[in-house]
Structures are given as structure tokens and as C-alpha cells.
Amino acid sequence: MSGVITANPALHAALKEVAAEMDRRFDALLKVPDDPRAPLYRAMRHATIGGGKRLRPLLVFATARLFEVSRDAAGRVATALEAIHVYSLIHDDLPAMDDDDLRHGKPTVHKAFDEATAILAGDCLHALAFEVLADPATHADPFVRAELIADLARASGPSGMAGGQAMDLAADGAQFDLGTVTRLQQMKTGALIGAAVEAGAILGRVAPEGRVHLRGYAHDLGLAFQIVDDLMDVEGDEKLAGKKLRKDGEQGKETFVSLLGIDRARQQSRLLVDQAIDHLRSYGAEADLLRAIARYVVERDR
Amino acid sequence: MSGVITANPALHAALKEVAAEMDRRFDALLKVPDDPRAPLYRAMRHATIGGGKRLRPLLVFATARLFEVSRDAAGRVATALEAIHVYSLIHDDLPAMDDDDLRHGKPTVHKAFDEATAILAGDCLHALAFEVLADPATHADPFVRAELIADLARASGPSGMAGGQAMDLAADGAQFDLGTVTRLQQMKTGALIGAAVEAGAILGRVAPEGRVHLRGYAHDLGLAFQIVDDLMDVEGDEKLAGKKLRKDGEQGKETFVSLLGIDRARQQSRLLVDQAIDHLRSYGAEADLLRAIARYVVERDR
């Protein structure tokens, strides 16, 4: 959502508020120590403060709102989710991976610091996410903490985000079909989006069987988000995006756009957003922010 | 302990048993999927199966034995600790970090596979460690699971292992004094050794105030271990060690040996082992394995 303004005033306010809260929380979490670890902390601050769409934190807050979860608990969980997301960006941008120089309009961590610091900064944010969740300050009930941790570990590990990234590595010129690309993206991006929504419900002490509609929402939202990302990669403006675009085509990777074409991809993303919103039909006005987020995902693409 | 045989038959049996159990557990945890993630899983298997001292798992088992913890719970926790240790070795060996080609007598992961796979394999083992701990199969009580996770996250993050590694990066030619080297090593190696002992006590439901002696044991053991590592780096045989030696001297890094000299370093390691064993004086024969491990740490150096 960097560089894009939404027409929905409630969403606009929520986006601003969440961005400010994330900056504040990472600033408090990552005070630079007066010892040789200072560059490590500066690298973590560079990556976490002042940038990014904050989509996953927003989803935690928007879901937590359905169940009257305390703002502080949601804020801590949102920080953990975002820490995992940012660690994955730092590692994905490394020369051995996607080799990107720019992220959120700033130099990537290995460019602003060095590769070793980038690897370690990613590893530290990864550990910090679990440290934040395991802290009794996040939730007094250890059952809730353990469930949040299981949710995040699953979503970020080899059957989630990191597994999707491994499939993505194998995708160069591998001629994946639509089913494989869908599965890849569900793991690489969808799993953590799903974990953000799920975390809001876990904080709300909703039993797994009560989370079915929210899971459906997150599933469709995650796919729509990725299809729009693929559309923006083809049609977007690098300045507005704050990162290098059109890399998939150069690398010969199949995407939703290469497999479906621009028109069908756009149609599919809108269908998925309608479906996502439909999953929320049992909720009233308290789910309007979740609905606005879903609409916003396709609004980005124009 | 690779390539070294202990004279203590009970320790020898325990080492063999733990090594076999870790191989078995990683084999079961890391079944290679029939999809594009196969190289990722093969890389994780390469790093976790069939090698390594298994010191941290052994410490979990040896401590758990004091409190009649189930063998399966200890085995799961030992797997998580070892997964964190192995992920850190994979990342430390990367070209941007220590740039090592050999580990446990085998090619390092980025040599046997490639850098991107090595980065992701490390990230996945990191996530898997927390997934294993968060699983109710590890312990029925979520309070115990949450405490195990907090213990491991703290020990592996920026105030533990990864922070120590960041200090180590800054150590090249930085003329650290003995206090700084001690702190660096307590973070880099000592924190995870401490977490292994602490995890055994957490599984045994020992309250924090009851863990003081065990913490003392782990603290002194961790330092003795690192001093002996520094001695072996200067005096050891690369074939037996299964990795490149004498790198610290080449890089101009201060170590316990460069700061204390060989004789005082050796003296210090033996003093620390005596101290470590002394911390166990309130325990009877059930702590003999912990005592044997401490003696073994200096036995390695000859």
C-alpha cells in the first residue's frame, strides 16, 4: 500500500494508525545497545521502521476487533507477525536469493549494511517474533501463547512461507502449471496472511471450528493479493512500488498473469475478493475493516 | 566429540544412544516431499543427520534424567535445541559469514547444495524448532510449552546466540579484551548450552529458583567448552575435527588462547569444569552423566 491512497476513510485511518504503532513498537523493541551488536540492531531498525504495507499487522487488528481483544495483545501479536514477514524479506533480497537492491524505496539491508549483517538481522527478527509471543505480557493464558506460536511456526516454516520460497527458487524456467503456482503462492504469501487472521481469532479464544469462515476469507484474500501483485509486477510503476519490477518475466517464471493473461487474472482477483467478503456474511459492521481490506487489495491495481 | 572416544563407558553409551536417536528423529521429521521443495528437505537432512557432537541434546537428556521426565518429551525438546544449533551452523558457514567448506567432515550445505538453499534450510530448521516445541505432543501443559519456547527464543536471538555471532563479526581485528571475549562466547555458545540444561529443568517442572545450581553448571560448562574449542583450534588436527582450524589467528581475532596463552587457558578450562561439577553437589548419582559430560569437555583437549 506504499504510495497508494485508499478512498475509504476508515481504512485510511486504520492504515495510518497501524503504521505508526508498528514503528513505535519496533523502536521500543530494538533499542541499539552500546556494544559491538550495534550494527545488527541498526540493520533490524532499518528493515522494520518506516516502511512496508503493514498488511499482516492490520489483519491481526481487524480480526482481533471482532472479538474484543485488548489492543495491546493484538499489537504484540501484530509485531511478531510483521517481524517474521520482514525477516523473510531481508533473506529473500539477499544476492544468493532474489538479489534486490531496493525495498520500500530504501536500500535493502545487505546494501545498507552487508550480507553477514543481513543474514543475522533476519535470524534475530525470526527469534524475536517467538520471544514476543512466548512472553506472558502477550496473553496471560499460556494455552493462547502456545497456540499463537504453533500458528506462526507452521505458517513460516517448510510447509508455509519458507517452503513456498523454496518452490519459488525451483520455479525458474520450470514451467509450473496453474495448480503448482497457486500452491506455491498459498505457501509463500498466503500462509502468513492466514496466520495473521488466525492469530486474531486465537487471541479472541475462538475454537478452531469457529474459525472456518475467517480461514476462507484469508485464503481468498491471500490469493487475490498475490494475483494483484503479479499484475502490478507487469503493469506497475517501479517508483511507486519502491522495488524492482518485471523480474518474474525476465527470469522466465510462471505467474498468474503469464498463465491466465492480464484480463482473466484481473477478473479472478475480483472474484476472489467478492468470495473473501462473502465469507464474512455472519459478521456485522464489526467486520467492515476486514471487508475494506479485501476491497483495497484490488483497488491497488489500476 | 566427533573422532574422539571417551574412557567413561556410561558417557560413551549415552553419546551413541543420543546420536542414534537424533538421527532417527530428524529422519522422521524431514521426510522428503514429492514436490519442488525436495532439495530444501535434502539440505536439511544433510545438515541434521549423521554428524555433530550432539552435545546440546545430550545435555537435555542428562538434565531431564534428574527429574524423571519422559524420554519422548526430552527427545522432542532435544530435537528442537539441535535444530536451532544446526541452523546456526548452516548460516555461520555461508560465504558472507565464516565461509567454510567443511563441517563434520562433510561439505557444508551451501557447498553440497547452493547458497539460497542453505539460507532457506537454516530458516526452516529455525521455524521447525518452535513448531516442535509448540506441539502438544511435546508436553500436555501449555505453560511448560510456552516456557520452553521463551527459553529457546531468548537463547537464540539477539541477546543470545545470534547476538554473539554479531559480536564475533565485529571481532576481526577489533582487539577485544578478556571481558568482551567472555561475554561474546557466553552469548554465542553459552546461551544455547544454558538453554539445553534449562529445558531439561523446565520439563521437570522445576521452578526458576530451583534452577540456580543447574544454571551455574551450564554457565561454567559453556565457558570451559569454548576455551577447549579455542585450544583445539590452535593445537588440533583438521582431519579429526572435520572442519577448518586456525581461522581465528588468521583473521586476527582475539580468543581465550590469544589473550591467556595456552597454559593459562588450559588451567582455566579445568578450573571451570571443577566448578561446574561443584554446582551439582546437591544431586546424587542421578547427576553422574552431567558430571561425566563436564569432564569430557576437557578430555577432548589432549
How would you sum up this structure, described in words?
Two copies of one chain form a homodimer. Chain A is mainly α. The first copy, chain A, has one domain: Farnesyl Diphosphate Synthase, CATH 1.10.600. In chain A, 68% of the residues lie in helices and 1% in strands. In chain A, strands 1-2 form a two-stranded antiparallel sheet. In chain A, a hairpin with a 2-residue loop joins strand 1 and strand 2. Chain A is globular, with a radius of gyration of 18 Å. At the A-B interface, helix 2, helix 4, helix 6, helix 7 and helix 8 of A face helix 2, helix 4, helix 6, helix 7 and helix 8 of B.
Annotated CATH architecture of chain A: Orthogonal Bundle
H-E string of chain A: HHHHEEHHHHHHHHHHH
Q: Work out the radius of gyration of chain A.
A: 18 Å
CATH superfamily of chain A: Farnesyl Diphosphate Synthase
Quantity of strands of chain A, as a count: 2
The CATH topology of chain A is what?
Farnesyl Diphosphate Synthase
Query: Within the largest sheet of chain A, what's the order of strands?
Result: 1-2
Oligomer: homodimer
What is the distance, rounded to the nearest whole angstrom, between the alpha carbons of the first and last residues of chain A?
13 Å
Question: How many structural domains are formed by the residues of chain A?
Answer: 1
* Sequence stretches where pLDDT stays below 50 over 5 or more residues of chain A: none
Structural class of chain A: mainly alpha
Q: Helix segment count of chain A?
A: 15
Shape of chain A from CA axes? globular
Largest interface: A-B, 58 and 59 residues
Biggest beta sheet summary of chain A? 2 strands, antiparallel
Q: Which strand-content bin applies to the residues of chain A?
A: under 5%
Just give the CATH class of chain A. Answer: Mainly Alpha
